[in-house]
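#help-structures
NK: newbie question, is this the right format to request a structure? protein is Methyltransferase domain-containing protein
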Amino acid sequence: MTTFEEGTPAKTDVHHGKLSLAEIFETLLGGDLKIRITAYDGSSAGPEDAEFGLNLKTPRGTTYLVTAPGDLGLARAYVSGDLELIGAHPGDPYGALQALAEDLNFKRPSPLALAQIARSLGIEHFKPITPPPQEALPRWRRFAEGLRHSKTRDAEVISYHYDVSNAFYEWVLGPSMTYTCAVYPDADASLETAQENKYRLIFDKLRLKPGDRLLDIGCGWGGMVRYAARRGVKALGVTLSAEQAEWAQQAIADEGLADLAEVRHSDYRDVPESDFDAVSSIGLTEHIGVGNYPSYFSFMRDKARVGGLVLNHSITRPDNMKSSRAGSFIDRYVFPDGELTGSGKIISKMQDIGGLEVVHEENFRYHYASTLRDWNRNLVDHWDEAVEEVGVGTARLWGLYMAGCRIGFERDIVQLHHVLAVKLDDKGRQSLPLRPWWDA
């Protein structure tokens, strides 16, 4: 095994021949490999009996890896089919990613080692090439769509992620068509049971009852809207995805809920109605931008009546210090312009606008890991249909993204928080029960 620490002479520095592709991989990964590495030049490294492995199939894959080191290059090579994860179904590469994550301990090669790697690969691999078609433009090239988090640009990036195909989402998400963290009442609960339980929990936290009015912003396919309407609540949902709105309105009609429920294709900032008994945001905050939190939470406060409740459900970071911007893979392939921060910052921004009192928060990160596990299983079960519907590259991307995010939740790289607040009157009063009133 060859590793490099910056400034430390290393074995490869005195290796005068060319390195094979597997040796280069082995060198850059560092540590004792737990996976098997094979490459199109016939080379290999790592234990022969490893359960999982990487197979670099083409020179194009090498170029992707060299020109974008780290997760972005790996994603490009994998999505394009130039890199295979051996031992894992492409709809659920969780096991292979776990094993790979154990080996991803990149060491900075010494200058001599870098020079030898360059000589071994050839200069042609260091010239950037066109990325896979599933990749969004880098941040600096999105200005044609408007300033970050402007209405125009938000509509573009939401469409990029959510207007993939309603049929594809039905296969992955299941009958609930719910693309947010479920809440599992027990470890053996099904995905559908957990999603229904999530809506039940939010409904109860918001103290909704027949005759109340609910605004659900970023409502997706209208799961919360329909759940509330079935219980006599007049519910309005808004989404920037035209395909979501069309699907949701049809589902509302099919269930005979048109008198109580509506899903509108609209920016949440354009909702004219107000005086709602409750306002929910389930999975929208990730798209808002931390700099826009004051106006975002002010909007939610202003749309609620005095004494009304506001619930924010969003992916968070485990601290409040790191950069809010997503990494290259997530930004280019999953949520362009997405931003995450800690629950502490979310709470403080809600408090700082005035007029809202935060009364409860909780973390559901293990529930999201389980949700992603079940979405991956659904993709595996419907792999052939998914590939026919969206293409193998996009299907591979979704398998990779969901399995990778599952690992992120398991390892406390990301979390999922509910933050519940109440709108105070002008004297700072509210009349909620003294203790939580819902069944956890």
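mod (FA): yep, format's fine, and the tokens are attached above. Residues 1-15 have pLDDT under 50 and may be disordered.
NK: thank you!
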